[in-house]
């Protein structure tokens, strides 16, 4: 199932939003509009809150899409961890005010207005950190664990390259964790497992700001959003290593079994021609399951490629049926990309043509290109895919404009970046 959260620092959404969620089967985590602050305890304020909560619950309680009513965003942890430097001697008063507002007032109103029996106010929320004092340093530190950081002496170029690499890092982090949850749906290891997906923070922005969102304020897709379209695909092969063994799990969210086969390819970073590929025999991937479909010691894989090493090779794989791909192409790094050997700076060109209201970008590359990012500036719209790997010389990507535009405007605005371009 898909879930959206209406955050307590924003607004109560209009009726049409909840109607669409009902129709499309999208579940809603609904916050009351209290976030990241300590609130007063005056009687007039409490009365105002009671009227607000009663109105919103009466307005929205009939929507089956709403699965959680949340009293606020992070206000309890802010109080318990003393984010606002309240004097220790005053904390009991603030705690008393918190209970009065959220338990004695908001919870009481919700229970009186809504007759739901399974409402549970003590759920274990996943706390997320935000507004770190050293946030930029932390992002670059994390990116530096896996990638060579931008080193341009041009401040504008350095800024753009830093945005690019942090977008790559965010997308990779959420991809890796979400794929772990998806491949764990059918097993329990050391008491952990039977997880089927992830509710990631966050979908969109309520104003223009640098944030965790996968959609910009104007609706433009960031790299994470393109990644999410792939790592939430109903059929997906997921690769990982454990004790020197490379595994691929097949994950199906479909309601019927699928007869598929797995293709595994190994490329040297400096060549578009695969050093090795293998195709499994067709097998049945059960509906609603995640199972191991391939395993091979990494050392054995490397030996089959001749001079292949962890540093100069990369693995890619996909599911197909009757020679038709039915999953995104996934990949597995055998080492951190900052240690990759042989990665070339590709020359990527695009030929743009128009088909009705859609534009076709015929891409061509001179070398393997990780994390290819296509951008058309301020022209609103989205690509059929973005942030992808090019391991073949050509690739076709579609662009869906949200407003009328022309081939000429796209050609003038088009810019492409891949990982090697920032070094």
Strand and helix layout:
Layout: E1 2-6, H1 15-24, E2 26-31, H2 43-60, E3 66-70, H3 75-80, H4 91-113, H5 135-146, H6 155-183, E4 188-189, E5 192-193, H7 223-231, E6 235-242, E7 245-252, E8 258-268, E9 276-279, E10 283-285, E11 290-297, H8 298-304, E12 313-321, E13 324-325, E14 330-333, E15 348-355, E16 358-365, E17 369-375, E18 381-383, E19 388-390, E20 394-401, H9 407-413, E21 415-417
Parallel strand pairs: 1-2, 2-3
Antiparallel strand pairs: 4-5, 6-7, 7-11, 8-9, 8-10, 8-12, 12-13, 12-14, 15-16, 16-20, 17-19, 17-21, 18-20
Pfam families: Ig_mannosidase, Mannosidase_ig
Family: Belongs to the glycosyl hydrolase 2 family.
InterPro entries: Beta-gal/glucu_dom_sf (IPR036156), Beta-mannosidase_GH2 (IPR050887), Beta-mannosidase_Ig (IPR041625), GH (IPR017853), Ig-like_fold (IPR013783), Mannosidase_ig (IPR041447)
Describe the fold and architecture.
The chain is globular. 29% of the residues lie in helices and 28% in strands. The model is unreliable at 118-130 (pLDDT under 50). By secondary structure, the chain is of the alpha+beta class. Among the domains are: 2-113, Glycosidases (TIM Barrel); 233-341, Immunoglobulin-like (Sandwich); 348-422, Immunoglobulin-like (Sandwich). α2 (43-60) packs parallel to α4 (91-113) and α6 runs parallel beside α7. The strands form 6 sheets. Strands 8, 9, 10, 12, 13 and 14 form a 6-stranded antiparallel β-sheet that branches. Strands 15-16-20-18 form a 4-stranded antiparallel β-sheet, covered by helices on one side. Strands 1-2-3 form a 3-stranded parallel β-sheet, covered by helices on one side. It has helices spanning 15-24, 43-60, 75-80, 91-113, 135-146, 155-183, 223-231, 298-304, 407-413; strands at residues 2-6, 26-31, 66-70, 188-189, 192-193, 235-242, 245-252, 258-268, 276-279, 283-285, 290-297, 313-321, 324-325, 330-333, 348-355, 358-365, 369-375, 381-383, 388-390, 394-401, 415-417. One of its GO terms (biological process) is glycoprotein catabolic process. Belongs to the glycosyl hydrolase 2 family. GO terms for molecular function: beta-mannosidase activity. Residues 343-422 form the Beta-mannosidase Ig-fold domain.
